Amino acid sequence: QARLTESGGGLVQAGDSLKLSCAASGRTFDYYITGWFRQAPGKEREFVAAITGVTGGTEYADSVKGRFVISRDNNEKIVFLQMNDLNVEDTGVYYCAAKRPPISTNQYDYSWFGDGTQVTVSA
Q1: CB-based contact 94:9 (threshold 8 Å)
Q2: How far apart are CA 57 and CA 100, in angstroms?
Q3: Rounded alpha-carbon distances, angstroms, from residue 32 to 24, 89, 100, 103
Q4: Of 94, 93, 53, 46, nearest to 75 (Cα)?
Q5: pLDDT tens for residues 74-119?
Q6: CA-CA distances (angstroms) from residue 90 to 65, 68, 74, 117, 119?
Q7: CB-based burial of residue 63 (10 Å sphere; 0-12 exposed, 13-18 middle, 19+ buried)?
Q8: Model pLDDT for residues 26-48, shown as the tens digit of each residue
């Protein structure tokens, strides 16, 4: 079973950068797919990015391609989300998630979620 704890959220201005972290527990962390999802007020939770455990293959939502980068440190059991050129539409609660392979962009395929970290981007 995986336990996930997000950090790094905050209030920034449009055009700024922010780096989120997700600390994971579990002995077989490098086996799991890890992903980031976000939920804006009044909207459903949506996929942002995901990364495989061993090869580091990635998937991104079209809305963040070229601006966000997902990475992971298997030794430290941490997943990162580097967010650049943020805009108001990126505001929301960001959740870290984990699942067994294969990689997926569907939140319902993920077995574990953290409690989330708030990201607010002002114009």
Answers
A1: yes
A2: 14
A3: 10, 29, 5, 9
A4: 53
A5: 889 999 999 999 999 999 999 999 999 999 999 999 999 999 999 9
A6: 12, 11, 27, 13, 8
A7: middle
A8: 777 888 999 999 999 999 999 99
Q: Give whole-number Cα distances, 86 to 2, 9, 72, 105, 115, in Å.
A: 29, 12, 21, 21, 22
Structure tokens at 11: 């209030």
Of 45, 31, 36, 117, the closest CA to residue 80 belongs to 36
Please count the other Cβ atoms lying within 10 Å of the Cβ belonging to residue 87: 13
Q: Is residue 26 within 8 Å of residue 77, measured between CB atoms?
A: yes
Nearest to 10 by CA among 97, 123, 121: 121
Pull the structure tokens for residue 79.
Answer: 């997943």
Residues 38, 69: Cα–Cα separation, whole Å: 15
Strands 46-51 and 33-39: antiparallel
